[in-house]
Design goal:
The complex is a heterodimer of chains A (322) and B (502). By secondary structure, chain A is an all-alpha fold. Chain A has helices at 2-13, 15-33, 40-65, 75-90, 97-120, 126-145, 155-162, 171-189, 191-201, 203-208, 213-239, 250-260, 272-291, 296-315, 318-321; strands spanning 164-166, 169-170. Chain B is of the alpha/beta class and 502 residues long. The chains are: A mainly alpha (322), B alpha/beta (502).
């Protein structure tokens, strides 16, 4: 009997279950505050926004899982740069989609590689390395755009992101779902996943067991850069053209989504399913704040405060485990 | 009247008795040697005097009055200074600053005068002037000095506290002969000035050269104090080990049956040099368990880690079977057929918070170049390896932390059994695990050896080492000084070799 009751109690403490519960509660709250908030079309719109954040958070999730204070603060910069590249290469033509996505992926991979090499070969703490990289990317953006808003999404991309694609659900959400499945398989059903958790949990022991820790860590940063690039590419489809520093909000939001989803900043445990719930939860929260006519400043405040409160509960990982 | 007297001092950690009964009387103007086998309580006794360990029972008298030494600071106030084996220097500060460090706490005022500090340090550097070697300078950061120079600075720092009682725990391990001579001269001077010195060393020649009396600790009790001039090395070793030199050898349990023809060499090591390891060469044959023995920290563990590719640097020739080992990383070593089990499983072994399955499969996956992790097929193989060691667990998907220490270590060993290596390096593998698990582990190791694996074993427990090794290499200060075979595998011979002049 104790088995059943403890397993229910354990379940209730699982971050994923907590997040799902909160999502439901927020939907109900939103509907009460503003009837129509929880309508199907509105939920779909929320999910599209969440999916873009979710893609960025996938990379962030991997970097954080790898431990040793892994964090990628440059994701926002990569998102913005990728959006600029995508918009300018497509210029409103479907023919530009394939070259644009390839260019974005290459860009993301390149900056991710630089981050990874800095962190492993040069032993620069991830916080400093990726913060520096963010600065570099922001500088680069100013140079590339020279102040002129530019680029236009291909109509095909815009349809993919915003219009129903299959069973009334937009392609973007299908893509996110596919990424969710692939991430789960990668983390749970491949040796790569085992090794990511191993270096995140105890890097010394992992090395002693033959895990190429540096190689794995570099690949995590490359993944992060590429996921951010994909998100930047999709943003163009959502908003039509790239506007100034479109990616900036994703740095903090992607970290919050990961932590909300039950991956502690110390790494080594957690997973992407929770992060997906975390992303939805965060977008819902943002939407409710908008419904309440709270300005951008207030929303940023709420985001920051959310992260700090989360740290209080599960962010300290190792310290709490004892 | 003794300068320092300890009576019935006792220290327990839970059920473990680190020091059962420590009696010691230290006279002014004497060098008092402490001797004891591994884990006998020697370092606990000196830590109690140094104020870093508080005794549970017993009386400490300093100059005739009863005192307590609750902290290193209290020890310093009583005029006690300690030379720490694992040096206590500030690497980025200069030689002068390090030497003056003990005095800085007492000094008044906010600012230090450089010239004054140099002047204060100089008398302590001067006795070693002729043996300081290249690269030594008053303003050189200690981190840039060689190991022997750092050890000299630690000695100078100990002297600079101007103590009445000095504790030297292996102060000469990194020094060359000329440096040791200078140090001995300094000790004689201190003795003549009426200072009291507690001296711990593994060099018997030094002990007889400088020591006045010796106190021998066995199994946590000080069993005898003798005047060194009236005793012999043999007598000391007999007291220390409780064994006779010529008596029957300790029953080495089921030593491997020696095959008549020349056995195949599985591991050949020539001139291995690494941090803490000084030119070590040996061979291990298939089916053999070679023990690494001696006093703790003489390079046994460092040699095993270096072989496995876990040391910062390494030179020398290592052949596993017929292939020469290249690449100084655990990964390269594993691919070439080496395995390593550390006694510090929390640091080197257990991937905390992850499942038993994930903790068991990494080596197998590496050797078989797996990418897809199928819990079913991996699980079946993992289960087999875990059962070989009779590991107790609920399911493979429970976190490894849910197991007892002994079972966690079995998981770590099972990791290697899933894809058996040619040579197994065991670095104190049974540290902190229960007796049943220990027995289980050694039963399996015997089987593995019988099946042709070569095993290197270091154990911090002498009995375990002697019982399970076919041969024992005795380490002293990073070198192998002797090989014990057959009936020589006794505690007596082990310590005889361990204390022999390097």
């Amino acid at each position: 009997m104790s088995g059943l009751s403890t397993s229910i109690a354990d379940l209730a403490r699982t971050p994923l279950v907590v997040a799902l519960g909160l999502i439901l509660a927020l939907l109900v709250l939103g509907e009460l505050l503003s009837p129509g908030f929880a309508s199907a079309s509105q939920i779909m719109r929320l999910l599209i926004v969440a999916s873009i954040l979710g893609v960025v958070a996938a990379g962030q999730n991997l970097v954080i899982l790898g431990g040793r204070e892994g964090i990628d603060l440059s994701v926002g910069g990569v998102v913005s740069l990728s959006a600029v590249i995508a918009g300018n290469m497509m210029q409103g033509s479907d023919a530009g989609i394939i070259p644009a996505i390839l260019a974005c992926l290459a860009t993301g991979a390149f900056f991710g590689l630089l981050n990874g090499l800095g962190v492993t070969l040069l032993r620069i703490p991830p916080l400093i390395m990726t913060l520096g990289m963010l600065g570099v990317l922001q500088g680069l953006l100013v140079v590339v755009r020279s102040g002129i808003p530019s680029g236009l999404a291909a109509p095909g991309l815009a349809r993919f992101v915003t219009q129903p694609f299959l069973f009334g659900v937009p392609g973007m959400i299908w893509l996110w779902g596919a990424i969710g499945v692939l991430m789960a398989l990668l983390l749970r059903r491949t040796l790569f996943g085992y090794r990511v958790y191993a270096i995140g949990s105890n890097e010394t022991a992992a090395r002693m067991a033959g895990v190429p820790a540096d190689l794995i860590r570099v690949s995590l940063f490359v993944f992060s850069g590429m996921f951010a690039a994909v998100a930047g590419f999709c943003i163009i489809g959502y908003s039509g053209s790239s506007f100034s520093n479109v990616g900036a909000q994703y740095m903090l939001a992607s970290i919050i989504a990961v932590v909300l989803g039950g991956t502690p900043l110390s790494g080594g445990k957690g997973g992407y399913t929770g992060t997906m719930a975390g992303a939805v939860l965060l977008i819902l929260l943002q939407s409710i704040l908008t419904t309440l006519n709270i300005e951008e400043a207030g929303r940023q405040f709420a985001f920051g405060a959310t992260l700090l409160v989360l740290m209080l509960f599960y962010g300290r990982g190792k310290a709490l485990r004892g | 009247m003794p300068r320092l007297r300890l009576e019935g001092v006792c220290k327990r950690y839970g059920a473990t008795v680190a020091l059962g009964r420590g009696d010691l009387s230290l006279m002014p103007g004497e060098v008092h040697v402490l001797m004891g086998s591994n884990g006998s309580g020697k370092s606990t006794l000196s830590k109690i005097i140094a104020g870093s360990v508080r005794p549970d029972e017993g009386v400490i008298e300093c100059d005739g009055s009863i005192v307590t030494i609750p902290s290193p600071r209290a020890a310093r106030d009583l005029g006690i200074a300690v030379f720490y084996q694992e040096l206590s220097l500030a690497a980025h500060r200069s030689v002068v600053e390090n030497i003056c460090l003990p005095g800085l706490g007492h000094a008044r005022g906010l600012f230090r005068n450089r010239a004054e500090m140099t002047a204060a340090a100089e008398p302590f550097i001067e006795p070693f002037e002729s043996v300081l070697g290249e690269g030594f300078g008053l303003d050189v950061p200690v981190g840039r000095l060689r190991a022997d120079q750092r050890q000299l600075v630690e000695i100078m720092k100990t002297l600079a506290a101007r103590p009445d009682i000095l504790i030297f725990d292996e102060p000469t391990s990194a020094l060359d002969r000329a440096q040791v001579e200078c140090f001995m001269a300094v000790l004689r001077k201190l003795k003549a000035d009426g200072k009291s010195i507690i001296f711990i060393s593994h060099r018997m020649d030094e002990i007889f050269e400088i020591g006045d009396r010796v106190t021998i600790i066995r199994d946590g009790e000080t069993v005898r104090t003798s005047v060194l001039a009236d005793t012999t090395m043999e007598e000391i070793l007999r007291t220390m080990t409780g064994e006779e030199a010529t008596g029957p050898a300790a029953p080495a349990v089921s030593a491997a049956v020696k095959t008549p023809q020349r056995p195949t060499v599985k591991l050949k090591v020539s001139n291995l040099v690494a941090p803490g390891v000084n030119n070590v060469s040996f061979e291990v044959a298939a089916g053999e368990i070679l023990g690494f023995g001696g006093l703790h920290g003489q390079g046994q563990s460092a040699a095993l880690r270096a072989l496995f590719g876990a040391a910062q640097s390494r030179s020398g020739d290592i052949e596993v079977g017929t292939t020469r080992l290249t690449g100084n990383s655990p990964r390269a070593s594993i691919r070439n057929g080496l395995a390593y089990v550390s006694g510090d499983r929390a640091r080197d072994g257990v991937i905390e918070g992850r499942s038993i399955l994930e903790n068991t499969v990494p080596i197998y996956a590496l050797k078989n170049h797996l990418f897809v992790a199928s819990p079913r097929s991996l699980g079946a193989k993992a289960q087999q390896a875990l059962e070989q060691l009779q590991t107790k667990y609920q399911t493979l998907f429970h976190p490894i932390n849910s197991l007892s220490g002994g079972n966690q270590q079995k998981v770590v060993v099972s990791r290697w059994l899933m894809a058996p290596p040619e040579v197994m390096l065991l670095d104190d593998p049974t540290k902190g695990i229960d007796i049943a698990s220990k027995a289980e582990l050694f039963r399996v190791l015997r089987e593995l050896a019988a099946a042709g694996m070569a095993i290197l074993l270091y154990s911090s427990e002498d009995a375990e080492l002697l019982e399970n090794s076919d041969r024992v290499l005795v380490f002293n200060n990073g070198r192998t000084v002797r090989e014990l075979v057959g009936d020589e595998r006794t505690r007596y011979h082990l310590y005889h070799a361990a204390y022999e002049a390097a």
